[in-house]
Write a structure and sequence with these properties.
Elements (H helix, E strand, L loop, with lengths): L2 H11 L7 H17 L13 H4 L4 H4 L8 H4 L7 E5 L5 H10 L4 E6 L2 H18 L4 E5 L12 E7 L8 H11 E14 L5 H4 L2 H5 L6 E2 H11 L1 E15 L2 E12 L12 E4 L5 E3 L5 E3 L3 E3 L2 H7 L8 E4 L1 H5 L14
Parallel strand pairs: 1-2, 1-4, 2-3, 4-5, 5-6
Antiparallel strand pairs: 5-8, 7-8, 9-12, 9-13, 10-11
Helix pairs in contact: 2-7, 8-11
Length: 336
């Protein structure tokens, strides 16, 4: 068989080196339908949750947990918040979050696999009974077209799921759409040390295991920035496995939504970076030197006054400086 025929046969098996969206969805759906029917140990990085987070959750859910991190545990969930979990599977992260947001909060789990949704919904009544309230719903849908309205979520989580999409840029754009202003995401996924070669990317088994679809850390950060997120931070990173000398890591990333105004202007706001670093740059390239005053626009002033920057800057306006003498250096310890 000549080389052209070998290539032709390979393309028939894998129509594209990187799956198109419809093919990847069908492969992933079948992969996780089987994983729902027949639980698999160590499908991804083994992760254990504290017992107090899972004691209200049926074992049928826990034994079908295929995540690679603990985004819900790292998200700093507050009572009353609305959370969307992408690729909810059998629902473990949703059920944990249900307890954390409390009876006045809401949790929405999104998944495209009927078998997983059946398990999540069948176990939901046990969770409701154990918690004493119902604040959770599951919806069938795609990550590339999240079936909720604009700006409804305070928090988005996902656990080893975004790698399963062949169109990650659209996923990140959808995350931006459904988050409220200054909402945040916390996602756990597998990242690769270097670009994954095409023969691994076209391996259907490794795609289902979140390996073949892995992005490099640099690329996933770039995609998130392009979608409009800021304040990106790696919350955790640990080695998972090596395949053909390609190293893969379980990584949890947090980022925030900030909608820029159409009337941003310089109106006397100033920022002083308090440290601990000598010099830093923000997401838009503004340079801040520790202890030095920098003039900033109204958008930047608003952004630096909110998480994750809050506490690292002192934000002032011209009016604050005009009467600064009446506010500072008037206590026993010296200047305020």
């Amino acid at each position: 068989m000549n080389k052209s025929n070998i290539k032709k046969n390979q393309m028939q098996q894998y129509p594209e080196q990187v799956y198109n969206l419809d093919e990847s969805r069908e492969d992933v759906r079948q992969f996780y339908s089987n994983a729902a029917a027949n639980p698999r140990e160590n499908l991804c990085c083994p992760v254990s949750y504290p017992e107090e987070d899972t004691e209200h959750i049926p074992s049928a859910v826990i034994e079908r947990f295929y995540g690679c991190g603990s985004p819900v545990a790292m998200a700093g969930i507050n009572k009353g918040e609305t959370m969307i979990d992408l690729g909810a599977g059998a629902g473990i992260d949703c059920f944990i979050a249900s307890k954390k947001v409390g009876k006045n909060g809401a949790v929405i789990g999104i998944d495209m696999t009927d078998n997983m949704l059946d398990i999540a919904n069948s176990c939901k009544n046990d969770v409701i009974r154990n918690l004493g309230y119902d604040n959770i719903k599951f919806k069938k849908g795609y990550l590339e077209n999240i079936p909720v309205n604009n700006s409804v979520a305070d928090l988005i989580t996902s656990n080893c799921v975004i790698n399963l999409s062949a169109d990650k840029n659209t996923v990140f754009s959808e995350m931006w759409r459904v988050l409220r202003d200054n909402g945040r995401f916390v996602i756990s996924d597998i990242v690769s040390e270097k670009e994954v070669p095409s023969h691994i990317m076209s391996n259907r088994q490794l795609w289902g295991e979140c390996i073949a679809g892995a992005l490099t850390e640099e690329k996933i950060m770039s995609y998130l920035e392009q979608a409009g997120f800021y304040g990106l931070q790696i919350l955790s990173k640990s080695y998972w496995k090596t395949i053909e000398n390609y190293k893969f890591y379980s990584t949890t990333i947090r980022g925030y939504k900030f909608r820029k105004s159409t009337s941003c202007k310089y109106d006397g706001q100033k920022a002083v970076y308090l440290g601990p670093f000598k010099v830093i740059y923000d997401d838009e390239g503004h340079r801040f030197t520790r202890g030095e005053t920098e003039e900033i626009c109204t958008d930047t002033a608003k952004k630096l006054s909110q998480p994750p920057y809050i506490g690292f800057f002192k934000i002032t306006a011209d009016s604050d400086e005009d009467d600064a003498g009446n506010k500072c250096c008037n206590n026993s310890t010296g200047c305020c």
